[in-house]
Each structure stands twice: as structure tokens, then as C-alpha cells.
Amino acid sequence: MRKILIGLGVFVLLLVVAVVAAPFLFKDRLRALADKQIAQRVRAKVQYDPNNIDVSVLHSFPDLTLDIKDLRVIGLDSFSRDTLAYLPGLRVGLDIMTVIKGQEIKINTVELDRPDLSLRVLKSGRTNWDVMISDSAAAAKGQDTSQVRLAIKGWKMTDGHLRYEDLTLPFRMEARQVNHTGSGDFASNVFEMTSKTTAGRLDMTYGGVAYVTDKQLDADVTMNMDLNKNLYTFKDNKIKLNDFPFSFAGAIGLPNATDITYDVTFKALETDFKTLLSLVPGVYTDKFKNVETSGKVAFDGYYKGVQNALRMPGYGVNLAVTNGRFKYPDLPQEAKNINVKMVVDNPSGFTNNVKVNVSQFHLDLGPNPVDGNVTIDGLEPMKVDGRVKANVNLAEALKVYPVPGLSMRGQLAVDATGKGTYSKTQMPVVNAAIKMTNGYVKSNKFPAPIEDINLSGTVVNTTGQVNDTYVNLPQFHMVLEGEPLDGRLTAHNINQPVFDANVKGTVDLTKITRIFPLAGMTVTGRVSGNIAAAGNMADVEAGRYQNVKASGTVQAKNVTYKSKDLPQGVNISSAAGTFNNNQIAIQSLNGTAGTSDFAANGTVSNYLGYLFTPGQALKGTMNVTSHNFNVNEFMVDPVSNKSTATGQGAPAKATGVLEIPKFFDLVLNSKVDNVTYDNLKLTNASGTVAVNNQIATLKNLTFNTLGATFGTSGSYNTQSLAHPKFDLGLNIKNLDFQSAFKAFNTVKALVPLASAVQGVFGTNFNVSGEMGQDMFPKLATLSGTGLFDIVKASVLQSPVLSQISSLTTLPELKNLQVLNKIVNAQIVNGNFVVKPFDLAIGDVKMTVGGSNSLAGLLSYVTAINAPTGKLGNALSGKLTQLTGVSNIQGTDRVTLGLNIGGSMTSPVVKLTGGSLKDQGKAIVTNVVKAKLTDALLGLATKNRAKTDSTQKATATTQQASQEQLNLEVQKKKLEAQEKAKQAIGAGLNSLFGGRKKAAPADTAKK
User: Fold this and answer.
1) How far apart are CA 163 and CA 182, in angstroms?
2) Is the pTM higher than 0.85?
3) Closest by alpha carbon to 96, among 133, 59, 143, 145?
């Protein structure tokens, strides 16, 4: 016993020592290893705080646990705004002996706490999770690939959130409250992997249709893992979706680098109809366990074949419901005689070859029968043959199937048949009729009911030609809280419809959108009108509006609109207008957009073309006034195309790009008292803005800010939202140097000398370039030319002038006073080039010119002509060497040449020459010409490089497009071959008496 106690004490002591020592011994080494592995093996941005890394031995004793909190993985390029993974808690169990030895470190366990994982596949096929660099690729770079090895025996996920989106299909899946555990010896090549997964909420959509909504998942799966053959075989497994259990059998293989093979079958594990009923949206409630059911279900299918760039596995599903019935205990009626037979088969795997046969669909909703059947062969084109017939009393239907918070009554009758081919040029022969009598709908979400709903209509096509489709809705009537809405519609010739419609009444948008919610949008207010339209879309597209009969009046009050794209919202307090074939006349329009107010009137034309013909522009002339307008609220993120406003008030500064709308050809005569743009306040803004083809052309736009008057004309182009361009002529009067330097980044970067200048100037300057995402010019793209009118300027305590004064021994040059001086300048290739100009300071004359770069480097020259007697002896000696004149003091005047380099804060001034001639202007002019030539050559080189880069990118895109096209051609070819094989097989079957079909499962005996 004593030895046992001593041994136990030693063990406890060692454990305590390990707990205390582990963070100190291994934390820095493991952190460095993690940083190195991420840098070498991960193609993504990995963000975490080094202080959030901890090491311990308690959690997974005897393993060492590496604990990382708040780790985030963000993609690159197309996924640069996507968070692939956010891991609030990541624990990695490491083999402690491999850590101590410091050689290859084995990872034994991985635990994720509350992970948020988002997996995406773009239409191009690119995946956001392809971020790991393979061992072979790392080894090719000379990197060590042996430092970390997966020897995982167990893993765990707690309360996860998983999203998967594949735009190539398109398919989307989202699972919340995911808990998952798994185990298997990945250090071995052949072993069994077991896993258990639960999800509190599972949603799946395909092609925009929700097939699984808010369901629960429970899955126990055991697979045989053969890593030598890359073959994974299903063993014991049970998957339950809500109360519907099913299982898989078969195997999945990875025979090579491009193919995945499937040979999998699946089937339902129970035949009780109640299990299938649990999948119906809204059925799976607390009361579901008490629902009375009867009937049987048979469900099975297969997924077999090869998946690669060209092919997808074949698949098939069989579903049969026999004599199904259900009744909620609290409701008086039951759904009975539910009989469904459905077969989906596509052995080739090509989506276009799918065949669907719903040979029977019948149920009785209380005393109301619903019948239907349909066969579908292919998708493009689609051969269809089907019928649906129902005559349902809506009040009786709610006695069968509960919809919480919804009341309905009225008689709904539908009788529709369709047979033929559906494609871009064809449609089935259709005969469909719908009729609603004395309808009533009320929802708890909004207490106002829609009452007295009466409508009848038909859709008829007797030839199968698209343009022979006739839609007739001779009557539509409803009442919403005492406000009637009536209308009618007839139309035919689908490609270019011939239509005749009329709508009259008042619509309360608040009530309508609460009854029929608009995803991501909020709309309120009242719109009333009397609108009539009749004509031919061919006339609309051709602009022959005189052939179209359109007339009416519209009034709106307190209409509001808010969406994700426009979170600040628009509120139209009142609006009134009339319209005819040609135009809409807006008598008055008053409202606010975010914190901005506006009022408008004018005319809008071509509204029919804009509404009904893609690509046609809305034209017109509008007069717009505003007391206060905040531009910052209307910026758009150039990547997501979403508004950068938050809806919680205006952003403090401009973020995003101001987008010019597509398909607008409008002239806006505007007058705004106060404008907020970034951190500037503009007043008395007025002028004309012509908008066309996503280009805004500014004409005589004037405003006041910073105590100065601004005038501008030119254009702003957002045809490429990622690269918006501008070309403006600026006319500025009486702008203070210091105000300009503080307010404008362009002045800080291009004219750093302005930081030391006090005074007032004006300018007449033409400038063009590209706007950045913050709606400020990208300085490297600027080009321009113009002049600066220096009304009054004082340069005091400038490091540049101090050095010039010290070098020339001319104290009067320490401070400069400039009055009424015109200076010409040019912007080329990111350089601000100042052309030579003259100054006189007493009896000293100066000529100055040169340039400065975006990096703030000065490259100026100045020639100073001064009386020789003012120069000190030391400078006179140096001039003797430069000029060759021994008695320099005996001359009257001398010209000094100086170079000014460095930066504004650390200038470097050097004496470069001296002359007895007054040739300062020529010296500076020649130097500035050389600088301008160099800048232009640099710009030409940059443009050539940009062109070459664009051509290369275009060639790469074209190559990728051609490869994708070739792939699609091969797919179509294989698809056609498989379809032909199926047709030949079907023909032979028919010729020789047909193949015996498997008898349907006798679910009753089971």
C-alpha cells in the first residue's frame, strides 16, 4: 500500500509539474510552428491573436493540447471577402512525446467549439476551401513537409454552423446546432471510421426551390476506410431526417486524381406513412406525435457512376404511398386516400436526360378531392404530359391541415392539362382554368383581411407554338379594409405580347406587404390610381408609342421603401402624376432619402420601353431641389455592389463608390442649399447633370465650400464600378492654401509645398483619372494641366527656404511674399510638374520650376540672380571656381543655379552652377522640359505595361472560356449518346415484348 501511495504521489507531482511547465516549455515553439505551417501551407489569410494561444495537458491527457481561440480563415482573390471558417474555439491534441522530441509532431485529436464554416463553389467551378498546399507542391519549393503528421484517432464538433453553396448546380445547404463526433485510426491504412451527427435545423434548396426546410437530422454512420485503395464502404448506418429514417449501402472510391466513383443504394428503414409525413413543411410540430395516421410508404434509390469534369453519376428514386391518411386530433376533418407513385430515373447522370413519372397523385382534403399526374422527359427541351384537377373549399382544407395564424375561406377550382414540348421556341398544348369565388384570407401577422376575392381566368394554347398562348383574366376584384381594387387582363403572343389591361383602386402597401412579404424589403404607404393600357409590345420595342393606348393618374402618400441595398430608405411624402403613351408628367414629388430631403417635378419619357424591353433607357428632364443632401449615404461597395450606408444615420466619411444607374438618359437641373460629401460641407450647389450610359456629365456645376467658390464641368463614369473614371475642368476662386491642404488629400500629395504657404489662390485646371473606393482620386492615375492664380501668398519658416537662404547668404530669401502670380502646372505619371515662373524679392530675382512625386520627393531647380556684393566670401570663392572669373566681386550681378531635393521636412539644397549672365529662365526651362519628357516617357511605358497586362488577362480569360466551351461540347456529345442508347434500349424492349418490371414492394406485408 505504501508503494502504491508513493507511486500515486509521484504521479500527481509529475502531473502538477507538467500542468505548470507545459505553457512555458512548449507554447512559443508550437506558436512558431503554427505560424510557419500557415505561411508555407495555406493559401488564405489566417487571423488570430498570438495571446489567444494556450498549451495544457489537462484536457486530453496524456496528449498535449494546443488551444487557439477566435481563429479566422479568409479566402483570396474571388473569395477575399469570404470568411471560410471562424473558429471561436479550436483544440488540437498533440502526441506529447513527438513534441518533446521536437521532430515530426503527430496530431491525434481535433475539437471545434461553435465553428462557423462557409463552403462555396463558384459558377466557374472554383472552390473557396482549396486553400491547402499539397506535400508535393511544398516539397517542390524546398519546404519541409515532415514536421506535422495527421495520426487522428478522434474528432469532435460542438454547436456548429455549416453552410454549403454550389452555384454550378445551383444547390444550397445550411445546418445549425450541429454536433458531431468521430473516431478512426488514420495512422492505419485500413480501419473503421464511426461518426455521429445531429443538426437542430437543416435547410436545403436546389434551383431556388426549398426541398428541406427547418428539419432535424440524426445520423450514425460506420464506414470501412481503405486508404491504400482510396475506397470507402458503407457499413452499419442509420440517418433520420425528422422522423424519416433511411440508410445507405455501397461504396465511394477515389481511383485517380480526377474521378470519384459511386456505387450506392439507399432505402427507407420504415414503411409507416407517418415517417414521410414528418418531412412536409409545417407538419413537424409538437402536436405531430399525436397525429392519427395510416398507410404505407416504399422508398429506395441509387447513385451510381463516375464523377469528374465531364460526368456525374446516374441516379434514381422510387417513391410509393399507398392509402395514406392523417388527421390532427384538434381538427374535424382528415386527409385520406393519399396515393402517390413516383419514379425518377437518370442512369446517364446528365441532368438533361432525367425522366420523372408521377403516374398517380390523389388525396381527399375532407370532402374535396385533388388529382394529378405528370411525366417529364428531359429538361432542355422538356417533354411533359400532365394534369391537375382540384375543387377545394379553403375553409374545409384548414380543417384538415393546420396553418397557424391563417384563416381562409372561399372556393378555389383548378383544372389544367398540358402535353407537348417546352423549350425556348415551343410550349405544351395547354388548357388551364382557375376560379376563386368569395375568397377571404386573414393572417395573424397583419389583422386586416383580404375579402371578397373573386377572379376567373384561363390560359389556353392549342398549337404548341409559344405565340399562340392566350391569357384571359376578365375579372379580378378584392377588398382590403373597405378599399376595393378591380382589374382585368388579356394577353397573347408571348414573345411580343398583345395586351389589354385595366387596374383601378387604392392599394395600401403596408397591408399588402405584410400579407405577402417581400424578402429583404420593407414597403409602406398608399398608392391610388386609374390605369389603362392596350397595345402591342412590338410597337413598344420599336418606339411606336402612338400605337399604344396608355393613360391614367397616380397619387402616392407616405410611401416608404427600405432594402439591403438601400438601408437608409426612401420616403415619398406625396406625389402626383399623369401619364399617356409617350410620357409621365410628374406635377409634384416630395420626400426624403435617408437624412436628405428632395422635391422634384418634370417629365419622363420612354417609360414603356424602359419597363418592358431590357436595355432601353428611361429618358426625361427633372427639376430637383433640396435643402440638405448627404452624398455619403449613397456610396456603393464596388465588390459587393451593396450600399455602404447602415440605416443608422449617415456615415461619418465617404465609403464606397457613387454609382450612376444603368439605363438612365436623364437631365437633372439641380439646386441644393447644403451638401455633405465626406467631411466637406458644400453650400449653394446648382447646375445641370446629364445622366446617360452610366456617365454623369456635369454642366456649369457651382458651389461654395472652405470660403471659396468652385465651378466644374466634365464627366464621371461608373461603367466599371471597380474602376470609376472622371474628367473634370475645375475653376476655383479665393481658396485658402491652408484650408485646401487640410481638406484635400490630392493637395497634400501633389503640392506638399502648400503646407508652408499662407494666403489665397485660384485655379483653372483640367484633370482626369480614376476614383478610388473612398471616392477620392487615385493619385497614380491622374493627368492634367492648368494654371494657378496666386492672389496672395506668404511662405514663412520653410525648411527649403531656410536652406536656400543659408547657402546663398541672402537672408531676404527666408521668407517670401508673392502677389498676383500666374503659375502653370501639369500632372503626368504621378508627378506634379511646375513650369518655370519668376519672382522678385527686392533686387533679387528668382526663377523656379520642377516637380514632386507622390512619395513626397522634391525635384526642383531655381536660378537666383543677385547683386554680387550681397554674396559672402565663401560663396564668392566657390563661384570663382564655377565661373572661371578670378575677381567675382568686381562684377555687378551673378546667377546661381540650385537643385532642391529630399522632402519638405528634410530638404537637400545644392549649388550646381554659376554664371555672370542673367540666364536663369533658360536654365530652369531646360531642366523642367527634361523632367516633363521623362515623366511622359514613364507614362507611355506604364500604359504599354497596362495594355500588355490587359491583353494577357484577356487571353487567359479567352483560353479559360474556350476550355469551358470545349468541356460543355463534350458533355453535350456524351449526353446525346446516352440519350440515344436509352432510346434504342426502349425500342428493343418494345420490339421483343418488353422487359419485366420489378414488382412494387408489398408494403402491407412488411
Assistant:
1) 20
2) no
3) 59
